[in-house]
Amino acid sequence: MNETVTSENANFEHVAVLQQEVLDLLIVKPGPLKVIDGTVGYGGHSSLILKKNAEAVLLGIDRDSEALAAAKKVLSFAGARIHLVKDSFSNLGACAAGLGWHSVDAMLLDLGVSSPQIDNPKRGFSYRLNGPLDMRMDGQSRETACRILNTYPYDGLERIFREYGEIIKSRKLAEEIVARRGKTPWMYTSELAELCNSIPGVSRRGGPPAPSLCFQALRIEVNKELVELTRALEDGVRLLAKGGRIAVISFHSLEDRIVKQYFKKMASSCLCPPGLPICMCGHKASLKIITKKPVEATEDEINRNRRAAPSKLRVAEKI
Ligand SMILES: C[S@@+](CC[C@H](N)C(=O)[O-])C[C@H]1O[C@@H](n2cnc3c(N)ncnc32)[C@H](O)[C@@H]1O
């Protein structure tokens, strides 16, 4: 492939990661295909899919109306082969039913946030840019990072930082957040980044910077990212036609673990605890794992797009 797809809106662009790898592993059959891109974003992957298979029809879902507006332009070449819906991918079964689709041949989830979301200070995703503590992918949803920091009890904050940020000093961080809001409410990303940097040992030596872990944890909570992923995997695998494939690109270990374990479970022919003489569970394998190990970005891709560095692609096929 010679062309690297970038999708632009007013000031920002998003470069789709693992482009060739997604095409090679997900779009493996010729002829008419029904495809769901659950994270259509700026239309990069969808555009490649629709170009590779000229008979594919694609349902693109995203929570973010700005992304959908950009995707609409980028994908206009596909005419009636493209359907765009503003929704959460945990609702992909209902979105597919809305088109009268009862099964699909391919499904992609490219998790997390896009570059235009991160690079827009008003969205509050970046600890490097000052802006409101928002972090919503869907600008119409109620929960914001600001509301969480100003209203969650100490225990709730501590759990988020420990579980979603894997932060060593989660207690100290939660304590400081609660103490400060008694005097001034939390409002801006720079204030939170400053606090993270002021507490020694929030991150592991050589690991990601402290504010990066804290912002990741809050973003996961604001957007209920792990719950969304678990539901989408269940619905998605149910919806796949025999021989259909699901591809998931994740950017941090918590997401990747969920995908890996779910694929493993659905590829097992028995879920009984070890030691039982005969199978009692009656579980049947419904997936074949295509990527024994996750596919990662090449050095060349990382040199062109450093945001591809943590990406991990896992693919499975319905049997
Ligand atoms: C990494 S970007 C996808 C980029 C896209 N593959 C492309 O090539 O332009 C992730 C996108 O998924 C969306 N997203 C994340 N979680 C979502 C969810 N639970 N439901 C729907 N969209 C979601 C984000 O709003 C963002 O636009």
Task: Tell me about this structure.
This protein is of the alpha/beta class and about 325 residues long. The protein folds into 2 domains: about 5-115 and about 225-319, Rossmann fold (3-Layer(aba) Sandwich); about 120-225, Orthogonal Bundle (DNA polymerase, domain 1), CATH 1.10.150. It contains 13 helices and 10 strands. The strands form 2 sheets. Strands 3, 4, 5, 6, 7, 8, 9 and 10 form an 8-stranded mixed beta sheet that branches. Strands 1-2 form a two-stranded antiparallel sheet. β3, α2 and β4 (about 55-60) form a beta-alpha-beta unit. α7 (about 155-165) crosses α10 (about 210-225). The radius of gyration is 21 Å and the shape is globular. It binds S-adenosylmethionine. S-adenosylmethionine binds near residues 41, 61 and 63.
Question: How is this structure best summarized?
Answer:
With 319 residues, the chain is of the alpha/beta class. The protein is built from 13 helices and ten strands. The strands form two sheets. Strands 3, 4, 5, 6, 7, 8, 9 and 10 form an eight-stranded mixed β-sheet that branches.
Write the layout of secondary structure elements.
Layout: E1 6-8, E2 13-15, H1 19-26, E3 34-37, H2 44-52, E4 57-62, H3 65-74, E5 82-86, H4 92-98, E6 104-110, H5 115-119, H6 145-151, H7 154-165, H8 170-181, H9 189-198, H10 210-223, H11 225-239, E7 240-250, H12 253-266, E8 287-289, E9 295-296, H13 299-304, E10 312-318
Parallel strand pairs: 3-4, 3-6, 4-5, 6-7
Antiparallel strand pairs: 1-2, 7-10, 8-10, 9-10
The protein binds S-adenosylmethionine (SAM).
The site of S-adenosylmethionine has 23 residues, from helix 2 and strand 4.
